[in-house]
Design a protein that fits this description.
The chain is an alpha+beta fold. The protein is built from four helices and twelve strands.
Length: 223
């Protein structure tokens, strides 16, 4: 897996690296897993998996553990002011998925509120956000206006989902091909199911980001 450190960047900017298109979201490709358990195949809570410390394919990022795959590039989005890692971006030639883990109450779903906040912010910036049923429950199909590298107007589709686990919520934003045509065995969809969330036992306010860190053996490349 390649590693790249990225300075502070919005999900839309990250998606523009992968693709900028005037296509609209194709909802017909979404698979339904109703009744099977939304996380029956991952992503996982740390308590649900055994991680071998000698397993070099596992990359420890603090609040998240991701698994290296051929052709998968790991990028970390870093806040310029604090120099803290704020999001993880997994990138392939077909798109990307941005990962942001948050603390959540034990018996309360915070995704409804977060989803409404994302929709409101999308509308404020001139985009559209449509609710749909996805593999992890309700998700948002977002289309934002962008300027292509050629300077022409276009739109950037994304697919935002909130995956609830034990006292955590993982926000995953797909960009590129997975935003338009989800494929169960796609590289990015499979990479998401490999993810392990490490909530820890420390008390945290609902919606507080789980701490993310750079991997100890990383060789950052500034872009």
């Amino acid at each position: 897996m390649k590693f790249r450190r990225k300075q502070s960047v919005t999900p839309d900017e990250a998606g523009a690296e992968t693709t900028a298109t005037d296509a609209t979201t194709d909802a017909a490709a979404v698979e339904s897993t109703a009744g099977a358990g939304f996380r029956s195949q991952g992503p996982w809570d740390r308590s649900e998996v055994t991680i071998d410390e000698d397993d070099k394919t596992r990359i420890d990022l603090g609040g998240l553990v991701v698994t290296a795959r051929p052709g998968l590039e790991l990028r970390l989005q870093v806040d310029e002011a604090s120099q803290q890692v704020v999001a993880v971006l997994l990138v392939t030639s077909e798109g990307a998925v941005e990962l942001r883990p948050f603390a959540a109450p034990r018996n309360e779903d915070i995704w409804d509120d977060i989803r409404q906040q994302i929709a409101a912010e999308t509308a404020r910036r001139g985009g559209t956000a449509t609710e749909a049923d996805g593999v992890y429950g309700k998700e948002l199909r977002v289309v934002m206006p962008v300027t292509t590298p050629e300077g022409k107007p276009g739109t950037q589709p994304s697919r935002v989902m909130g995956i609830a686990g034990p006292r955590w919520l993982l926000r995953a934003t797909f960009l590129g091909r997975p935003a338009l045509t989800p494929v169960h065995d796609g590289d990015l969809e499979s990479a998401l199911r490999d993810v392990v969330v490490v909530r820890g036992s420390a008390p945290m306010a609902p919606g507080e980001p789980l701490p993310l860190v750079m991997p100890s053996n990383a060789a950052p490349v500034q872009k």
